[in-house]
Amino acid sequence: MKRGHGKAGSPRLSLSSISSRLNSFDQNLALWEELEVSQIGLATWETVPWSLSDATVELLKRGYDISSLLVRGFDLAEPESWPITRAMIDAAVDSAAEIAMRGSEPPIVSMLTGRNYSLPSIQLLELLNRAVSPSLLVARDQGVTIALEPTVSMRSDVSSIHTVLDAAKVARALGTKVNVDLYACWTELDIRASISQLCTEGLVALIQISDHARVTTASGDRAVPGDGCIPLAELVAAAVSGGYVGTYELESMGPTIDAEGYSSALRRGLDECCRILVEAGAAAS
């Protein structure tokens, strides 16, 4: 059973589980049913008490597609911790491959790069390459894409890459792709041209949508699309002009979303995303 999102549904629109970050997986199952979404982006640590494999199988049984599996990055200064992180990434890759074996499109495995220690860029790339290369080989063997996700610079605790162009540079070096989080990159110079060019190159595996609250000093306090100040329609149009044909994933999260309530905030966000995709000519699969 496939679901659309309301009357203006788009098969290219997904909802990230991070958007309802305080919910349990079972609570999210009920929420997603209520919202009538068709695709889910799943943070791999948000399936408890389900295993990741069992959670993804359950979603498939309920008729959902899975757009992405989000995994945490490496602590690049602590090589002894890499095998643990690598095992978590490989588990996500295995789940994505299992989804493909069941006849569905494999989700993107979206990865944060890990904590920034103000290392020189060459050293940083060398460490990241050593850390992630075994998982990249596993992913390629199974036909799964691992995409690097940049974050805002305030989140140097989880990421070493803070612009979409830097993410693209690293992705090229590693032979992989990029997850473009519009919230993280919208203030970059010539961002529309950058998004269009990266889409033309085929480097963009996923685009995440949220909005920036007009008055906030917190990096995790995102707004419902349409309530903030990011020119989302223009950025989506740039992706369309570059030939992007992938999924757009709503990733609104933070205290403002929590306070409004997930049912209300995410329904409004999905409606606005649908409107933007339809106007940009990006709604159809």
How would you explain this protein's 3D organization?
By secondary structure, the chain is α/β, with parallel strands linked by helices. It has a single domain, classed as TIM Barrel. 43% of the residues lie in helices and 14% in strands. The chain is built from 10 helices and 10 strands. The strands form 2 sheets. Strands 1-2-3-4-5-6-7-10 form an 8-stranded parallel beta barrel, surrounded by 5 helices. Helix 1 links the parallel strand 1 and strand 2. Helix 3 (82-101) runs parallel beside helix 4. The chain is globular.
Overall outline: globular
Estimated structural class = alpha/beta
Radius of gyration: 18 Å
User: Between the first and last Cα atoms, what is the distance in angstroms?
Assistant: 17 Å
What is the compact description of this entry?
The protein has 285 residues and is of the alpha/beta class. 43% of the residues lie in helices and 14% in strands.
